[in-house]
Design brief:
heterodimer; A: alpha/beta; Rossmann fold; 15 strands; globular; B: Rossmann fold; five-stranded parallel sheet
Chain lengths: 246, 317
């Protein structure tokens, strides 16, 4: 089994969100970056589990600048065998998907995995785009996955339930919570990661089709209205008359 | 120039999100002086009813392959080509999200998922969506000739502006699926969290799973869906599908009542788009109060049953 895991970099969840250049650019000052949790905790670990069961190699791919090598080394420390970085700013989902598909095209991966979305822009587009570019089935929001005899069976989360679907390899899979258990890299993994290959490749040109023109911050909440714990009739009145929520 | 809207019928019925998408498509069609065409898997009679929400034309097809992203993509692409559309509107639910990327490649279109409101067409098309877990809104500009928008809940109000139309059938012969459906499991009886208007959620302050009776009672009396914080689902007090927050389900109900949840930033990220937030916590310093509209500082084991009684009284008045 040859597995390719797409990883991306996102600001750490507690980062302060602000903008510069007249609200057109995300302010990166003081922002800590992490590997996108859906990519790290679920897509990457599931790929490692499949490899441990069936043999093969796990490659991680990232589209981004050299500063991303830190999170790529972390993926190697968790257990990926090798890494590829496409040296370009990941400006849009379609740009990223085109890079991944261009790299994967002639490498006969059995499975390409991504997280269901990144926690910063939450577009959730890259997996489906890669599947369409590769002409393979796409299994999305997968919370359980079995591979046997060249066949994949996936449990896909839908509103209020699941759809269980199956397909022959190769497939593209997007990972939801529950697909695997987070793994913390150990010292041996961290040491080995330093010697694993990290290849840097040039980007292909691709259209973006959409771009972000600017950002706005949502209106601040006007402040909490405290209601006496003894007086729940008052809370019900406020929810009915003021908030129109009941 | 037409606007094509795809909506899925589940057991030959439409949910609120489908009506919103048709109304949204009708508005975009009005802006761009085109027709609103709907493509759907509902039966002709059920699908024709979508005319009431502003569809000028409905194309309907029947299939057992709605689970297959490649199949649905090709069916929509066929309708798109047939009606000469330049815009496609999808719902930002699990199905919409699963096909948006494929469709963008197939149609060579620009795509924005999770739009919060109608687009603007002044000097090129732009649309706004939430980013950084709702901490900011970003304005996206399209530079493509073909555009896809998937719309978030409540992106537009539902208005009945037209009348039923006669659905035409879409020829899908020759389009096949690459995956097989093994089974579908849906929780019966309750409204799924992503679609719920009223949510009652509880956290570690509950002290143990045996105390959830008061949460269920409150949820029952207002017809709410129950949810929980991450520590609660991680320790197995409640099932994983109830976990709301950054790595669980992101929700935006009309009313979110948070009980015994301190309000960690990861939890807030999944719920801060709720219209009204009520926080019940004994700790007046709980960070959640800063994000709340209404707060009650008190012991939840006293406050929650009291609130349930007050609502019962209000409902029977």
């Amino acid at each position: 089994m040859n597995l390719l895991v797409c990883i991306s970099k996102t600001p750490e969840t507690t980062s302060k969100i602000g903008f510069t250049d007249n609200n057109t650019t995300f302010a990166t000052d003081g922002v800590q970056y992490i590997m996108n949790p859906y990519d790290e905790w679920y897509a990457l670990v599931k790929a490692l589990e499949v490899k441990e069961a069936l043999g093969g190699t796990v490659t991680v791919i990232n589209v981004g600048p050299a500063a991303n090598d830190v999170i790529i080394r972390k993926a190697l420390a968790i257990g990926a065998d090798e890494a590829v970085r496409v040296d370009a700013e990941p400006k849009s989902a379609v740009f990223v998907a085109q890079q991944i598909a261009a790299y994967a095209k002639d490498k006969a991966y059995d499975m390409i995995l991504t997280g269901k979305e990144t926690i910063d822009y939450s577009g959730g587009l890259v997996g489906g785009m890669v599947a369409e570019l590769m002409g393979t089935p796409f299994m999305s929001f997968v919370s359980n996955l079995d591979v046997a005899d060249g066949k994949v069976t996936a449990t896909c989360d839908i509103e209020g339930g699941v759809e269980v679907i199956s397909a022959s390899l190769p497939v593209v899979v997007s990972a939801s919570k529950g697909l695997a258990e987070q793994r913390i890299p150990n010292m041996r993994g961290i040491m080995m990661a330093k010697r694993k290959p990290l290849n840097v490749v040039e980007a292909q040109s691709a259209d973006d089709h959409v771009s972000i023109k600017g950002y706005t911050l949502p209106a601040e909440k006007s402040g909490v209205k405290l209601v006496d714990a003894e007086n729940m009739d008052e809370l019900v009145r406020l929810l009915h008359e003021e908030a129109k929520a009941l | 120039m037409s606007v094509l809207v795809f909506v899925e019928a589940i057991n030959n019925q439409y949910k609120k999100a489908a009506f919103e998408a048709v109304c949204y498509g009708a508005k975009v069609a009005e802006m761009t002086q085109g027709d609103c065409v709907v493509v759907t898997n509902g039966s002709a009679d059920v699908a024709g009813e979508l005319g009431k929400y502003g569809a000028n034309k409905v194309l309907s097809f029947q299939s057992d392959n709605m689970h297959d992203t490649a199949f649905v993509t090709q069916a929509i692409a066929k309708a798109y080509e047939q009606c000469g559309a330049k815009q496609l509107v999808l719902c930002d639910n699990s199905r919409g999200k699963s096909i948006a990327g494929r469709l963008a490649i197939k149609l060579g279109a620009g795509v924005v998922t999770g739009a919060e409101s109608l687009p603007s067409t002044d000097g090129g098309m732009t649309v706004q969506r939430g980013v950084f877990s709702g901490k900011a809104l970003a304005t996206y500009a399209y530079s493509s000739d073909n555009n896809i928008i998937s719309i978030s809940r409540n992106a537009t109000p539902i208005v009945e502006s037209g009348s039923a139309v006669t659905a035409e059938s879409l020829d899908i012969s020759g389009i096949s699926a690459a995956t097989q459906l093994v089974e579908v499991k849906r929780v019966e009886g309750t409204i799924p969290l992503p679609e719920a208007e009223l949510v009652v959620s509880a956290g570690r302050g509950m002290k143990g799973p045996e105390n959830w009776g008061i949460i269920d009672d409150l949820a029952d009396v207002i017809g709410a869906t129950t949810a929980c914080s991450r520590p609660v689902s991680d320790t197995g007090w409640r099932p994983h599908h109830e976990h709301v927050g950054q790595t669980g389900i992101a929700i935006k109900p009309n009313l979110y009542i948070a009980i015994g949840i301190s309000g960690a930033i990861q939890h807030l990220a999944g719920v801060n788009s709720s219209k009204t937030i009520v926080v019940i916590n004994k700790d007046p310093e709980a960070p959640f109060f800063k994000a709340a509209d209404y707060g009650v500082v008190g012991d939840l084991f006293d406050v929650v049953p009291r609130l349930t009684e007050s609502i019962k009284k209000f409902k029977s008045a």
